[in-house]
Amino acid sequence: MQSMEAVHIQDVPVEAVWAHLEEDPGSVLIDVRTRAEWTFVGLPDLEKIGKRVLTVEWQTSPDSKIDAGFPERLTKVLDAAGATNDSELFFICRSGARSRMAAEAMAGIGYRRCRNVADGFEGPLDASRHRGQLAGWKAAGLAWVQG
Fold first, then answer.
1. What topology is assigned to 10-145 in CATH?
2. How far apart are CA 135 and CA 118, in angstroms?
3. How confident is the model over 75-106, as pLDDT tens digits?
4. Do residues 122 and 136 lie in contact, with contact meaning Cβ atoms separated by under 8 Å?
């Protein structure tokens, strides 16, 4: 049964996320963006630390509707990856909003160590209305690949 208590999700800077993923073999990075974003914008690349990013859409394209089956779908992916309710789970999206909601949803069903990747993969818009320059995974120079 889901708790009615408010869940606090910690925002973790991208460099600290990388360090946690590198140091803790049980930690997991979950990208909740859409397939189009993975393909055309890119994905974090964890090959250097012997891991892979788990990809499960929080919202489905083209209507951007939140997927009510997300917790169940992600639970199956986490089980297959050997993660448990005590694994540290880092959620990432474009800028940190969808990933926060996804982390809250998973914390609400009993995953105890859900974290949000601060500024996400691309970060906020800069003065020219472009992402990926000010903050986030790409701006920090962390490894990524084009999908």
1. Oxidized Rhodanese; domain 1 (3.40.250)
2. 9
3. 999 999 999 999 999 999 999 899 999 999 99
4. yes
CA 105 vs CA 12, 13, 98: distances in Å: 18, 21, 11
Residue 6: both structure tokens together? 């408010």
Distance in angstroms (rounded) separating the CA atoms of residues 104 and 29: 15
Predicted TM-score of the model (pTM): 0.91
Tokens of 103: 């982390």
State the Cα–Cα distance between residues 89 and 106, nearest whole angstrom: 9
Instruction: State both tokens at 24.
Output: 């803790």
pLDDT one-digit tens code per residue, 3-34 = 445 678 999 999 999 999 999 999 999 999 99
| Contacts (Cβ under 8 Å, ≥6 apart) of 24 | 88
* Residue ranges of domains in the chain: 10-145
